[in-house]
């Protein structure tokens, strides 16, 4: 009888492992990018239609902007440290990807339309990367884009001439026709970002 229970237990474990393997396989088969992701991607749609103004003063939509794989970041040019560092990291990753033969566009969307005019954004983009597309717009347009990407921003003290803006700091990988596929936190290095982006592009 003991041997019977032992055998049944082993069979149950084998079935459980087999079922788990099948679940993982089916999950990966349904998600062609499973091996590329750095972590769990929360539910819900990220990204969507927007209408903004680029650094040349041209009104553009998401379709005009995301024509190539793009790294999208929301911030503002008056940001004292986080935004310059994050965008410099993104720009370096773009250069690494270019050396790998992959063409990726860095996109910067300002959450401070009052100060970030097209002229200001033009200077910022020129400093950051020649490929960068920098975007601003009316307060309503910027809020709509932020909501589409599920980002957060809040002006600390709008009465202060040198006000700061609290904002989220994720970088989103967007692919033409497919939309959002992954995000990157601040602690991801340029090499790590380039490696993961290359994985996504290789799986496309």
Summarize, please.
By secondary structure, the chain is an alpha+beta fold. It has six helices and nine strands; from the N terminus they run H-E-E-H-E-H-E-H-E-H-E-E-E-E-H.
Task: Record the SSE blueprint.
Layout lengths: L1 H29 L20 E4 L4 E3 H4 L4 E6 L6 H18 L5 E6 L7 H11 L4 E4 L2 H10 L4 E3 L9 E3 L3 E5 L3 E6 L5 H14 L1
Parallel strand pairs: 3-4, 4-5
Antiparallel strand pairs: 1-2, 1-5, 3-8, 6-7, 8-9
Helix pairs in contact: 3-6
Molecular structure report:
The protein is of the alpha+beta class and 204 residues long. It folds into 2 domains: 2-30; 51-203, 3-Layer(aba) Sandwich (Glutaredoxin), CATH 3.40.30.10. The chain is 42% helix and 20% strand. It has helices spanning 2-30, 62-65, 82-99, 118-128, 139-148, 190-203; strands spanning 51-54, 59-61, 70-75, 105-110, 133-136, 153-155, 165-167, 171-175, 179-184. Strands 2-1-5-4-3-8-9 form a 7-stranded mixed β-sheet. A two-stranded antiparallel ribbon has the order 6-7. Strand 3, helix 3 (82-99) and strand 4 (105-110) form a beta-alpha-beta unit. Helix 3 (82-99) crosses helix 6. The longest helix is centred in the first third of the chain and has 29 residues, at 2-30. 31% of the residues are buried.
Low-confidence stretches: 2-6, 8-28
Mean pLDDT: 87
**CATH architectural grouping of the largest domain:** 3-Layer(aba) Sandwich
CATH homologous superfamily heading of the largest domain: Glutaredoxin
Alpha-carbon distance between the two ends? 54 Å
Q: Which features would summarize this protein structure in a list?
A:
204 residues, alpha+beta, Glutaredoxin, 2 domains, seven-stranded mixed sheet, two-stranded antiparallel ribbon, 9 strands, disordered N terminus
């Amino acid at each position: 009888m003991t041997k019977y229970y032992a055998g049944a237990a082993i069979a149950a474990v084998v079935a459980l492992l087999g079922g788990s393997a099948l679940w993982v396989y089916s999950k990966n088969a349904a998600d062609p990018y499973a091996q590329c992701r750095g972590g769990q991607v929360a539910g819900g749609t990220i990204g969507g239609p927007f209408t903004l103004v680029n650094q040349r003063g041209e009104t553009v939509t998401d379709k005009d902007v995301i024509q190539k794989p793009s790294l999208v970041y929301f911030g503002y040019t008056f940001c004292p440290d986080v935004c310059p560092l994050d965008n410099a990291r993104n720009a370096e990753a773009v250069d690494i990807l270019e050396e790998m033969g992959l063409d990726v566009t860095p996109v910067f969307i300002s959450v401070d339309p009052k100060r970030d005019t097209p002229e200001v954004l033009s200077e910022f983009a020129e400093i950051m990367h020649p490929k960068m597309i920098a975007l601003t717009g009316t307060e309503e347009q910027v809020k709509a884009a932020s909501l589409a990407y599920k980002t957060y921003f809040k002006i600390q003290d709008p009465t202060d001439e040198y006000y700061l803006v609290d904002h989220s700091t994720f970088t989103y990988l967007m692919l033409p026709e497919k939309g959002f596929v992954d995000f990157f936190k601040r602690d991801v290095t340029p090499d790590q970002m380039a490696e993961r982006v290359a994985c996504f592009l290789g799986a496309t």
